[in-house]
Design goal:
The chain has 364 residues and is of the alpha+beta class. It is built from 5 helices and 20 strands. The strands form 3 sheets. Strands 2, 3, 4, 5, 7, 9, 10, 11, 12 and 17 form a 10-stranded antiparallel β-sheet that branches. Strands 1, 6, 8, 13, 14, 15, 16 and 18 form an 8-stranded antiparallel β-sheet that branches. It has a two-stranded antiparallel ribbon with strand order 19-20.
Length: 364
């Protein structure tokens, strides 16, 4: 039996969910490659940017505009995404991915955005993250590219050894050559095994790091005096350049993602899902309450930030993701010691907090 103090803590935690807020990383662009995120234009398929930047890109195959309504056998396509991943990947709704085979001609097939400067971060913090699946080394393996050696820009690609590489070039861009200060890091292991992987390419305080499937890789690189994440005006930005595999959910932030936000891109759990059941609900709230203020960095104890303590920051993450993957009903039994009450999933966090507080008062 829980003490009245413990009951009060549970009620307070639940009620706090209604007011828990977190600072959102500034999303610049969001390319989902789903049916709702790709439209057919005049003889061309356009990849829609669902982020605020609205930098839509035209799909090209062998240099020509390509339309999904008139597919070319063996060319780019949009198959179901996330095969082989747990059901909680992208909320259990995998949608579709961009499958960009190698056409046999380098730099020919890709998504072209033109000479834009939307993703110009100079020497500021930013993050590029996404999902990919690639087998072998056929193709150029380029996920994202607006870089020119000694000019500036960012480049993410699967290299000839199968590792994921993240590079930022030196130079001011705009045709001004400033040699040197081209930096780059690679993943610890090969990722061209045909499985889906998440990546987070991150710059924080002029230091580049790389995460694969939520794990920090060992290499890092610090900017030189001329290193700049500035696209060159003549080249513009391109995605999926002769990739030779599939890409999905490519997102760009003008912010260095936190550890909790990076964990949300992991293939194993969604942020706030402490018990790995694909839902963020009362069971996860109970785990957090049972471990409140404990000094552990274990995800399964609801330490979503990976710091030293289960605290308000973890509660905020749980609250922000409340209801993820939840079914129509939530049993209070597990969370409230076999209390024989089953109610619908609350439509809002405020209703959840009020409901739990009323139930606990009734118990008392």
């Amino acid at each position: 039996m829980k003490s009245r103090n413990q009951q009060f803590i549970y009620g307070l935690l639940a009620l706090s969910l209604a007011f828990a807020t977190v600072l959102k990383a500034d999303l610049v662009s969001d390319y989902r490659f789903d049916d709702s995120s790709q439209v057919s234009g005049t003889g061309a398929t356009r990849i829609v940017d669902d982020g605020p930047a609205l930098t839509h890109g035209d799909l090209r195959w062998n240099g020509a505009f390509y339309d999904i309504h008139f597919p070319i056998p063996g060319a780019a396509s949009f198959p179901a995404s996330g095969a082989g991943l747990p059901n909680d990947f992208l909320g259990g709704n995998h949608g579709t991915a961009l499958d960009m085979p190698y056409s046999g001609v380098n730099n020919s097939s890709h998504v072209a955005f033109g000479p834009i400067n939307t993703h110009d971060f100079e020497r500021l913090d930013f993050t590029i993250c996404g999902w990919f699946s690639k087998a072998g080394t056929v193709g150029q393996g380029i996920i994202y590219d607006n870089a020119v050696q000694d000019f500036g820009g960012q480049l993410i690609y699967v290299n000839g050894s199968g590792e994921l590489a993240f590079e930022i070039k030196g130079g001011a861009g705009g045709g001004v050559v400033e040699p040197g200060d081209n930096i780059g890091i690679v993943s610890d292991n090969a990722v061209n095994d045909g499985l889906w992987h998440s990546f987070v390419a991150r710059v924080s305080s002029e230091t580049a790091t790389l995460y694969i499937d939520g794990a920090l890789q060992s290499q890092s690189a610090t900017y030189g005096i001329n290193t700049k994440a500035r696209p060159t005006g003549s080249k513009g930005t391109r995605m999926a350049v002769e990739f030779g595999g599939q890409i999905d959910t490519l997102r760009i932030f003008s912010h260095a993602l936190s550890l909790a936000e990076i964990n949300a891109f992991s293939p194993f759990a969604h942020a706030g899902d402490a018990n790995f059941d694909g839902m963020v609900n009362l069971s996860d709230l109970q785990i957090l309450g049972d471990n409140w203020q404990s000094t552990t960095a274990d995800w399964s104890t609801a330490n979503f930030t990976g710091d030293d303590t289960v605290n308000l920051a973890d509660l905020q993450i749980l609250g922000d993701n409340w209801g993820f993957g939840a079914g129509p009903d939530v049993a209070f039994d597990a969370a409230l010691e076999q209390l024989d009450v089953v109610i619908p999933e609350p439509a809002s966090l405020m209703l959840l907090g009020i409901t739990m507080t009323l139930v606990l008062r009734r118990r008392g």
